Amino acid sequence: MTIRDDHVVAGDLATQAGEKLLEIRKELGFSEPAVLRSEGDRRSHVFLTESLARLRPSDVILSEEATREERLDPRRQTAERVWIIDPLDGTREFAEDGRADWAVHVALWERGSLVAGAVALPAQGRTLTTAAPPPLRQAPDKRIRIAVSRTRPPEFVQRLAYLVGADLVPIGSAGAKISAVLTGEVEAYVHAGGQYEWDSAAPVAVAQAAGAYASRIDGSPLTYNKVDPSLPDILVSLPELAPTLLAGIRDQRR
């Protein structure tokens, strides 16, 4: 087993899960969004967990769709390798016809760090991976763009945008938002409305591999595989913008 193998496993599984989700969309249609969301979550979870159990039988899995007992499995705290997955990030967008801002997350945490990851954006026809992270663009001379939640953008981010001269861009899933930073659609993503490790592990792994900045909004490190998987806030940006954004966040939260 090599680290390169893990990059490939993450990318292949995220892509294949995404393909299955596109098939589920076609099979079920959009007339019953709740059914579509439920089936998408369930089938993608089963595919990813069964695949990882086959390919990496000694590793532990932390999934958004796991039961409470599975999340509290004590083996996770002593394991050297834990796969952190979100089988369907952005279920709301997945169940809306025409929306492409949803994702599949597959990340590997090993001995304290994220070492591999992939974010599949199935409706966009691409997967971003740590095997070949996208090259970052430089920050523009004009106003920067900050990705925010479609449904619950933090109020302080609106004040931050005014302070630093930024435009807010609503995007669906966390994976789609962080991917937008990496592909040049926005320059930053700021969130403080509550999230969990599976919401950010895979996109943060890819972002860090690409050289982007990623931290909590107070500048402290993002840490994974904790007993409590809550990870409520995050900043991901082009590296040259991080000092300005962190300073602005501090000012707005005093």
Automatic annotation (TrEMBL):
Amino-acid positions noted as binding Mg(2+) in the UniProt annotation, renumbered to this chain: 64, 86, 88-89, 199
EC assignment: 3.1.3.25
GO terms classed as biological process: 3'-phosphoadenosine 5'-phosphosulfate metabolic process; phosphatidylinositol phosphate biosynthetic process; sulfate assimilation
Pfam families in UniProt: Inositol_P (PF00459)
Keyword field contains Coiled coil: no
Superkingdom field: Bacteria
GO molecular function: 3'(2'),5'-bisphosphate nucleotidase activity; inositol monophosphate phosphatase activity; metal ion binding
Protein name: inositol-phosphate phosphatase
Organism: Sinosporangium album
